[in-house]
Amino acid sequence: MAGRAEPSGPAACGGAPGLLPLLLLLLSAAAIIPRGDGQNLVTEDVTVVEGDVATISCRVKNSDDSVIQLLNPNRQTIYFRDFRPLKDSRFQLVNFSNSELRVSLTNVSISDEGRYFCQLYTDPPQEIYTTITVLVPPRNLVIDIQKEIAVEGEEIELNCTAMASRPATTIRWFKGNKELTGKSEVEQWSDMYTVTSRLVLKVGREDDGVPVICLVDHPAVKDLQTQRYLEVMYKPQVRVSQNYPVQGLTREGEPLELTCAAFGKPQPTDMRWLRVDDEMPQHVVVSGSNLLISNLNKTDNGTYRCEASNAVGKSHADYMLFVYDTTATTEPAVHGFTQLPNSAEELDYGDLSDSRAGEEGAIRSVDHAVVGGVVAVVVFAMLCLLIILGRYFARHKGTYFTHEAKGADDAADADTAIINAEGGQNNSEEKKEYFI
Q: How confident is the model at residue 416 (pLDDT cuts 50, 70, 90)?
């Protein structure tokens, strides 16, 4: 009847009608089974590399001898207890007991990927699923290089391609032990991914023979990499060494022997000696990379240059010669080696700092010597001028007397002195001067 109150609380549980809501509640709870934690039935997801073996395990905690079965993604029974209704020999029984059903799947392929169901015949039945994920390593890994042979200072492009992988790969670049950054593009074909990474690299002579490595980060494979060795051509690097005298003074009358060494790619074939800003002395003997002066004299002073060239370009190194007197005992301050770069790029190659510092020190020494000589000349000229002036003034020094002065000593005043002067005013035109 409308408006009739239903019994609740403990009174409702006392009769049979009160059991119905409780039973419905239990049935609803049984229908909602959390994955991996539903009434003692547990399993785990499986990740496997294509071609390997996947193992699926359905386990029961606190087993009550209920029947366990395994179904594929199409809901076809693979195993019912220890019986296999599905005619696929790749599925093999690994273990069967009241608490576990373990099955292996060999030669896994992409088509095997999906959800597999574990069922437990209880009242009500229980079911959970496990997911098989198939990884596919890259089919091929290739580096393409824009130029097989590069010239120092050029930019070259390298492309590394990892084809047909799942999931998409991550490509990393290394030059020797240094990691570089490339730019990757991903293309998807069905369930597969092809990744291409592009690297732009500016090469120098130090990169010749260095490997560039393309390395793949992928869960299906470890240490998958490929590499290409760089081949870089560069201008010669020239060095001049003094064979004799060995770290000694270059004195007059003694010999001097220099050797020129050049390294480049390709190896320099053209090498020559010349004297900067002057002609080579006739007594200098040049034999290949060697220069010999058998009897040094001061006319040999100057800068001697060794030039070397190859298909890429030309470079040189200089030797500054200063010939000392035979009595010289101090270390040379002017002569020495210097190698000047042909371009700004060559500043990074070779140890030029010491040679340039020696050259600057030599230039400063020459400047100081010139300034000292000029000062000495000026002082000497001033001394000579003072002596000449002194002698000139000494010769024109004395006292002047005139006839007008005669009689002036006894005169009382100026008029009297004039009157008393010998000859008076009449003899004024006959004035004479005497120099003593």
A: low
